[in-house]
Amino acid sequence: MKKLTSNKGKKSFQEFEKPGKQKPGSGFGWFYFLVIIFMLIIFVFTRFGNETKPISWLDFEQKMLSQHDVAKIVVVNNEIAEIYIKPEKLSEDKYKGLTDGVFASSTGPHYIMQIGTVESFESKLGKAQQDFTSDELIEVTYSTTFDWISALAWIIPIGLLIFFWMIILRSGRSGGVGNPLFNFGKSTAKLMDRTIKSTTTFKDVAGLKEAKVEIKEIVDFLKNPETYTKLGAKIPKGVLLVGPPGTGKTLMARAVAGEAQVPFFSLSGSEFVEMFVGVGASRVRDLFKKAKESAPSIIFIDEIDAVGRTRDKANALRTNDERESTLNQLLTELDGFGVNTGVIVLAATNRADILDKALLRPGRFDRHIFLELPNKDERKEIFLVHLRPIKKAADVDLEILASLSPGFSGADIANICNEAALIAARKKKNEVAQEDFMEARDRVIGGLERKSKIISPKEKEIIAHHEAGHAVASWYLKNVDALVKVSIIPRGKSLGAAWYLPEEHQIITRSQFIDQICASLGGRAAEEIIFNEVSSGALDDLEKVTKQAYIMVAYYGLDKEIGPISFYDSTGRYESSLVKPYSEKMAESIDREVQNLINTAYETTKGILLEHQPELIKLAQLLLKKEVVEQEDLENILGKRNRETETINKKIKNHEKRSNL
Question: Is residue 15 assigned to a domain?
Fold first, then answer.
């Protein structure tokens, strides 16, 4: 009885040796190899098989022809003259070495010479032999031969090209889908399935409560579709995540991949478009084909504005046919699969205003989820998430951190936490303390301190009075945020800074705008009051003030002369157009009102600083002495602010006292 053994997945030695089991096409490979070797052999023997030396006409005439050393001349292809030396002359010293080479021949030819044209060669040869007798005249014959060197110079490169191209074609046929050369039309989406799980979940997404509710509904549909379909509900085909940079759009998509436990295809919008025409549309078709085969599944397209830009007339001069064909294919695919097929498209962008309307309509992207910058409570939650891996000290106060980071996105908060850990490690600490977080915040906002930057005493005095002007003006203006500290230490590109604690406003009134403009002009006004001249240090302030004034007048309709008119365009089309949305006369009126608004604010600021000039000088002198003036020093010089101070300022002062102790 034969013993049966299982060799599943293995090949025996006999299987490899069986005749007829030869790998397909291996014989052709040997054929190509032999052809190339044959060509190289012919080339070598043709090129080096004749060690004939070239010679000029002058040497030929003086050293050979006049000495009667030439036996005959053969003109080949009317281009080259082959010179044969008489056998008895080869033993002379001047011809020594002609017969010593490996491929050398005693019969010749021994020299070759370029003749130009046959007529000129015969004419020069006839003149050179005028004094020769009939027996001394040299025999000249003509022959035509095939030039192997010139031919092989063309044949060998073409043969090598064909050889390698055949190898590539064969590897493409055998490699199938895995061959990258023939996959430029395939989708480049990264697939996350049940075996490759995303480790991000909704617990890692802090804040964004409303957005998570809508996203969780989609995940729940993929897990339990019958709950919705039995009531006749249709899950949205597409979900568009819209929000400023760093608000967590891509993080939300990764959380969906981690929670849904279904195949998740992710790629960037720019990966659709390549240099080859039609590749983008082909990749879109392949992507949706794979998603349908893996249904239920999710497709995530990050930065969809790279391919979904609007096709209006304003962009006609900057159109891209390849991008538009890709967009058309994407629109077709979004409409192409039926309802409740289990394929959902997620897309993210921070430029929703430039997306094509056909892409945004219901039936394609049915649901738009807006991710805003987090408020104070949401920032506390985000800090908690990013503080998990950090070994923090007991004095870390989330209330202070959240309050001192208004307008920060989730990415900014993550950066602050990481910078604080780096600063603590740089100081060889065992824990990350509150002061490290405060220093990290200043580092992220203003840049790295440059204490080594050399500043002359005169410039330092101007900077001190400039920053003191900002501080005094903002202190006595009602609608300006609370001042935290003033510094004249260079940081980043700035030579000094006044740090404020911004309040979170949903709307801004006209008086608030004007007070902010006045506070921004405090530095330049202080320079004019103290030094009777101004410097270039107010460039950033003037840029910010001018933009704010134009926004007030042209966008928010807060100017009395212009009236309640707004030229703001939420679609973003005016930005790409070559004309303004108003007449030249209106442009002149806007410019005039902006100028009047800024000049009036500047005079108001000068009046405040002139009224409190002693405090201005005293604060500037303190800045020159200490370089950084904190909240307590500001109150000692300027007194309590007219409006009620916030609780957070007291917490900051209490913390500073504990740190000093």
Answer: no
Q: How many domains does the chain have?
A: 4
Distance in angstroms (rounded) separating the CA atoms of residues 161 and 243: 52
List, for residues 72-101, the tens digit of each pLDDT value. 888 888 888 888 888 888 777 777 767 665
Structural domain includes residue 8:
no
User: Are 344 and 287 in a shared domain?
Assistant: yes
**Binding site members for ATP:** 243-250
Residue 631: which of 514, 485, 509 has the closest Cα?
485
For residue 118, give its domain range. Answer: 27-172
Distance CA 601, CA 594 (A): 11
- What phi and psi values does residue 425 have, to the nearest 5 degrees? -65, -35
What residues are annotated to the active site? 467
Q: How far is CA 165 from the centre of its chain?
A: 34
- Quick one: 497 and 635 in the same domain? yes
Calculate the CA dihedral of residues 629, 635, 639, 645 and round it to 10 degrees.
130
Q: Tell me, what CATH number does 116's domain have?
A: 3.40.1690.20
Residue 178 belongs to some domain of the structure: no
Residue 552 pLDDT > 90:
yes
**Residue from 597, 453, 472, 594 nearest 529 by CA:** 472
CATH number at residue 433: 1.10.8.60
pTM: 0.64
Q: Binding site: residue ranges? A: 243-250, 466, 470, 541
Mean pLDDT computed over every residue of the chain:
78
Question: Each residue of 192-208: b (16+ CB within 10 Å) or e?
Answer: beeeeebebebebbbbb
Residue stretches of the annotated binding site for Zn(2+)? 466, 470, 541
The model's pLDDT over 280-311, given as tens digits with 9 standing for 90+, comes to 778 888 888 888 888 788 888 888 888 887 77
